[in-house]
Amino acid sequence: MRAAALVVVVAVNLSLGAAAQAATNCSFRRGFRTWTLRASCTTDETIVIPVANLEGRGFTITAHDPPGGHFRGAIVRNGGPELNVAELRLTAEGLNPDACDADDDRLNGILIEDGGGSVTRSVIAGVKQGDSGCQEGNGIIVRNVDGAAFPFGAPRVEIEGNTVTGYQKTGIVVNGDVTARVTNNVVDSGGPVDFIARNGIQIGLGARATVAHNRVVGNSYSGSFGGAVGAGVLIVGGPPPGDPFTVGTDIEDNVILGADVGVFLDNEEEDASSASVPTRVDVRDNVIAHAEVTSGVPYSAGVLDIGNRDRIVGNLIFGAAYDPDTIPGSTFEIDVRFAIDPTVRRNR
Questions:
Q1: Spatial distance between the Cα atoms of 79 and 81, rounded to a whole number of angstroms
Q2: What count of other Cβ atoms lies within 10 Å of the Cβ of residue 51?
Q3: Residue 226 three-state SS
Q4: Which residues constitute the domain of residue 73?
Q5: Contact, 117 vs 85, CB < 8 A?
Q6: How far apart are the first and last CA of the chain?
Q7: What's the whole-model pTM score?
């Protein structure tokens, strides 16, 4: 097994070396387990890191479109079962706003796929294609949605102490069979926009996470297409059997400001009803505020629960957007009309 893995690593190194000469001026000091960025640089294609650690040293990698084409995929991603990124800065410049991509070609900042690791003390700013409605442009994304097996259970990821700003769709995403801690990050969308519904932090498709001590700002959609809203923290799962429910996540001690929906718990069956099994998501001791209704629908809620036996306890929720008297039937402090057996207490 070790020999086979070594062959894969060597192949990835050779592939990256050839691509780097043609598409990037990024230079790394390459060790057996750690690559260290030597200086700020640019790239027009994904940089694959085949070793366990990437040290950014505060330098910036800027993505731009290649000649005659457009940037596809992540700016930086893992090439093995583990990637730990520290003190890296990423941004994008002048990307084509009309080139929408799907699946592996979607624009992302840092991607860890089918693996574990961490992203710490990094800055991801402006990973976007201008004022684009393309459903891509995520700052940090971790995913294991193809059922990749690991000998010691789901891969574990730590996302801590980062600043993610000016993203196109979502600041931080954790999807699939992953266990994550998302803590002490600043995630700022930059305010209401009418071309895309943005989300701050998304935990979905069966992931388990602790989301704590983050500051999440913005994420309001002032348009009205499809009745979409932006969320500060979004928990999404179902419908089964294609997509698993997202259960057992803790959302605690965060400050969430200016979102259409501060915390959106969205575990749905195929008929859009709440999950038939307990989802048991805890939303507790958060500060959730929005001074005015900026949703184009319009719809606003401090917490919206489409789940089963979720707990919404001890949160401070305020501002006109979440006051039921602002637009009766459209603005809510806590909306549990669709939830099954929720616990709601000590919120104020």
A1: 7
A2: 21
A3: helix
A4: 2-345
A5: yes
A6: 56
A7: 0.92
Take residue 341 and report the two structure tokens written for it.
Answer: 């057996």
- Determine the residue type at 233: V
Pick the closest to residue 348 from 308, 299, 295, 303 (CA basis).
303
**Residue 331: DSSP 8-state:** E
d(CA 177, CA 82): 15
CA distances from 226 to 71, 133, 244, 276, 322 (A): 28, 13, 24, 26, 21
At position 231, the amino acid (one-letter code) is A
Tens-digit pLDDT profile for residues 84-126: 999 999 999 999 999 999 999 999 999 999 999 999 999 999 9
CA dist 153 to 35, 173, 175, 181, 209, Å? 27, 20, 15, 16, 14
Say how many C-beta atoms besides its own lie within 10 A of residue 284's C-beta.
15
Q: Any idea which residue has 């990037």 for tokens?
A: 24
For the chain, where are the alpha helices, taking DSSP H only? Answer: 2-23
The answer to whether 296 and 222 have CB atoms below 8 angstroms apart is yes
Q: Which two tokens stand for residue 320?
A: 């006109």
Encode pLDDT of 205-223 as tens digits: 999 999 999 999 999 999 9
**Within 10 A of 311 (CB to CB), how many other CB atoms are there?**
17
The mean pLDDT of 217-233, rounded to a whole number, is 96
Average pLDDT over residues 35-48: 97
Preceding peptide of 241 cis, ω within 30°: yes
When divided into structural domains, the chain yields a total of 1
Closest by CA position to 191, among listed 303, 290, 316, 297: 290
Residue corresponding to tokens 């401070």:
316
